[in-house]
Amino acid sequence: MKTGEPIVFVVDDDPSVRETLADLIASVGLSVLAFRSAREFLESRRPDAPACLVLDVRLPGLSGLELQRELLRIEAPIPIIFITGHGDIPMTVRAMKEGAVEFLAKPFRDQDLLDAIQHAIDIDRAARQERTIVAEVRQCYESLTKREREVMKLVVSGLLNKQIAAQLGSSETTVKMHRGQIMHKMRAQSAVQLARMAEKIGINEE
């Protein structure tokens, strides 16, 4: 597969189901990797590309729902499409609450699965782009001095330069200087944009 090309992971203990799903997914031009168990999937090295996971609920050893929780625990996010021949409402609700994109009961239409896969890949692509943006903002923020971080937090809280100066026991001129440095280092064009950046990295929650 090409670098960055979307990929679909399939985890199902039934060889015939794995093969059928892999053939279906490949038929629409998507790369696919199939695994026999949740443990095998966890121990594999995932390509750095938009992806989703087509996952059977009932698996020997670690179940599909347990794999979902483990991925959340180790902070390895990936959109999941559950497939099962034994689904029930509580199981479906639980899976969806923990972030599943879709829960398909067998037998399901091929197009329903393909539509769910495309939606899941779109979700993952957007999430990956957002994580990249957040990482860049965090890197810019880490370039600020301790005082600049203090000033930034007050700026995004809506205080004026005069109010910030009074709170920090500084001069308004000094605050203006810090503010200019903050805008430059954060690559922000306005206070509104700076506030959005702060929200992305949780500055107001610190």
List keywords for this structure.
single chain; 206 residues; alpha/beta; Rossmann fold; Arc Repressor Mutant, subunit A; 2 domains; 5-stranded parallel β-sheet; 5 strands; elongated
What's the order of the H and E elements? EHEHEHEHEHHHHH
CATH architecture of the largest domain: 3-Layer(aba) Sandwich
- Overall geometric form: elongated
* Portion in beta strands: 5-15%
Q: Please tally the helical runs, counting DSSP H or I stretches of 4 or more residues.
A: 9
The count of strands amounts to 5
How many structural domains? 2
Please give the order of strands in the largest beta sheet. 2-1-3-4-5
- The pLDDT mean sits at 91
Which stretches of 5+ consecutive residues score pLDDT under 50?
Answer: none
Instruction: Give the helix proportion (percent range).
Output: 40-55%
Can you give a write-up of this model?
The chain is α/β, with parallel strands linked by helices. The protein folds into two domains: 7-132, Response regulator (Rossmann fold); 143-205, Arc Repressor Mutant, subunit A. The protein contains nine helices and five strands; from the N terminus they run E-H-E-H-E-H-E-H-E-H-H-H-H-H. It has helices at residues 15-26, 38-42, 64-73, 89-97, 110-142, 146-156, 161-168, 172-186, 191-200; strands at 7-11, 31-35, 51-56, 80-84, 102-105. Strands 2-1-3-4-5 form a five-stranded parallel beta sheet, sandwiched between helices. Helix 6 crosses helix 9 (191-200). The chain is elongated. The model has no long low-confidence stretch (mean pLDDT 91).
